[in-house]
Protein 1
Amino acid sequence: MHSIKSGFLLLALLCIRLGAQEASSGIALPMTITGGGLYTHRLQAGDDHSSPIAGAFHAVLYPSLKLSSHWFVYSSLHLHSTPFYYYEAYEPEHEVKFQVVQAFVGYTRTHKTTSVVVKAGQLASAFGSFPLHYDDADNPLLDQPPSYAAYLRLRPDQLPCSADDIIYGNRYSTPKNFHCGGSSASSDGLTPVTLYGLPGIELNLSTHRLDSRFQLTNSSPANPQSLLSGSQHAQWTAGAGYTLVPGFRVGVSTFRGPFLDHAVASLLPAGQNIRSFPATGSGIDLQWARGRWSTSGEWQWFRFTYPNFRSSPEASFAYGEVKAVLTARAYLAARVGFQRNSHLTDLTERTDETFAPNRQSYELALGYRPNRWQLLKVGWEWLSISQAAGSRHQVFGVQLVTSIHSLSQAWH
């Protein structure tokens, strides 16, 4: 604890003496520190006697190094306690987690209206538009959109025997377990798109009103793996956007590749391997801003292919959010999202119900800036789940976000 306090004191002293400068090389360390609190009965999902109140923190550091006019190093380091995000409130454990979301070497070159950026290292997924904008200072609301936070009742390290195995085998338990072999570890399922990065290389190209990106990674955005993992499988993600008029952009993105773990490789049908059963995602996103109003939204579709299924699990997600600036210091924001899950067809029959309950979420937040460094957000979310009472899923939250932008040092 003493070393942590000393570290923050050193950063504060550096903040006084370093100024942001335009230079061919230098170092910078902006950061965002957030303290938050939740009131929700989600915290009582595993124990009715648990307190419905919890507090947590989220710190994001962005160390960057400018080596020359073309070469640079960038990183995004996240440290947070649980439950900070709304979906974490279902878990009884209180933990401190550290994630390296981005840590890459980059090269950039610009010619007239065309710019090229090449990155190599730990990268945020090129799928979707939210992964690069979920800093608490950028996110006008408190929670994350459904496809980046919700768990699906699917596992990449176990094989389901049938549709009933997916639907009924997990109905009354939080850990998801299939019964045709695989890992013996406990799992809550998979999230369709990770917010926490994965190793790879990426090419970004922008010209006039068009921007595009192509990414090769060591694993799927739905099942990210480290470079030391035995479940790595190369795959691609691509995306592009076009600015129709200033302030209005439309984008698309897609990914495809293996998502199953090596734990199930020996259990697959003869003549087939993990690459025979890919995960696929496609999405559309848009952003619009004019005056005091701004909106954004995404629609995404995913398919996770398993053996022994004629119709594998598919899920679609969508959300739309709007922000209205009320005064120079205050704004009001809202987000509506939904999740729809498919019916399954195994080797014998088609299910009468979807493989998981459909969901709708509604979130409202009021933001206020007491000064130019801080943002106070107060929010409420209501989650509606088919065939389940929704009152216990409501969340009331508050966050105080502090942004520090002045830690920098120029060399030339």
Note: The chain has two helices and 21 strands.
Protein 2
Amino acid sequence: MQNEPLKITLDAWEARYAALTQAGLREPWYGGPLGRHLRGGDRRLARLSFDNSPAALRLWNFLLTEDERLRRARGQGRKIVGAMKDLGTVPVIAYSAPNVVAFYPDGAWWVPCMMEMSTGELEAADALGINESFCPVRAMLGAFLNEAHFPRPDLLVCSAGAVCDDFSAIVQRLSGLGYPVLWWEIPHRRPPDPDEASVALPGGALAAAGQLAFVRDELERVKSAIEQLAGAPIDASLLGDGLRKANHIRELLRELRALTFTAERCPLPALELLIAEMLAIHFCSDRDEAAAVLEELLAEVRRRVQAGAGVLPAGAARVFWVNPVADLRVMNWLEDAGGRLCGTEFLFPHALDPIPVDLPPMEALARMALADPMVGSGMERAERICRDIALFGAEAVLVSRIPGASHCASESELIAALAEERLGVPTQIIEVPPISDARHASLRTRMEALVESVRRGRAS
């Protein structure tokens, strides 16, 4: 059943789902109408606009049933690894082990948004001394305590060193509450000295060979802990297979992004693109199903591009978006203001780059970990963003600053200034709390001003 691509409300999805079902829609076990998640407490869904394709329905149902998958895995006797902060490295190792599933407790930062502040995670963090001066990822503390969103992991792994100060403090508080954490260190990536051996990293950065050796040794410790948990070794064959499957997902996402950003008419809304990209970092607790979800979504986008169809009018302002949003609704607002996504940097481009397969697997993963933009200088991150802006032909840059996040205090201005100076594109910086309804008018005005700047530039 094919229909014109549209953005529709949750209520409209009820009728759409009934029509699809009558036409013979086939779904995985976690399928069903989107409205059931609203009834389950995901109140924010009632205020969002969604893509109307069956592929988008599968994507949303996959995202919103992760807690069910984790609990099913626990019931099946599988071991659960909670990976924190590294965004894309430890899960590749964990999924290479037999009978192990991994996820990011960090994802609980969206709970206050999705539940519209109804379940008390932020209040629990406040009571533990982690107040609103911290990044919204502090909601993770409350999620661990109430166990309403994921079961307690069998192993908690967290990167330390050149990571977000807020996150380190939050996980230290979690550790103090009696949750054992296996810490592994990621050093600040620095340019190699003139007389020092260097290695090329995914994404184009260079690192000192000594730093690479250090990170590889740290990841070997993590691998050993996962092997002990699994009760079986992760040999080179298993790890190599894990890298290939992770690369398949990254390849799907790279094509999905390229088609979405470069098509004459936008074939996929910003919100669904954001959700799809997030699958790269931990596969939403099911690596094989994540690939199947992305394959279906990519097939839908290919059909739309080939047909010249899209969810937005032709001529929408092409906007590069920096940083993920704590409130998903803001992605809708960009399109309501006349913009479309034309490039993204949601803090984990290294999780979209191909993992080298011509190297020993643990060295390849160490290179990927060192390629994380958050462990290098802000200027290196800004440089890569500028390269991507030029690659995708974006006409403007929107930086969504995360309240309380230590890295946003300086990087937002740096990125915006470099894009303006080097590429001559207009920029706008906004701040997005978990619920942005009270700021709707001001945020919409800023986005409309950015879109108007693009239109004036086209006319000049």
Note: The mean pLDDT is 95.
Protein 3
Amino acid sequence: MKTPALSKETFLKVLQLIQEQDQINHDFSRALQTVGNGFTAFGTENRFYNSLMLVLDEIFGDKADYISWWLYEASDDYTVETVDGSQKWDLREPEALYDYLVEEN
């Protein structure tokens, strides 16, 4: 297992901050919609977010985009498995995502 250039603690903090900023963006966008015509979108094409994801992808070799999946699209049980179903990983906790990225990528 290769040790990534980012500690687990920093990775967890980054995920937390992304989630907090997403909530702020969501709340701000909802507030804008109350004074706009309903077509207002805030936070799309955020270059800070995009650059951060590029760095995380590079650090972890996250070719399958698991970090973004975990943040926005994960199934309710946060489970990933091999194509043949012979191995499964429970990634509900961000610590498990970090371990998975380190071990499998």
Note: The first strand starts at residue 79 and ends at 81.
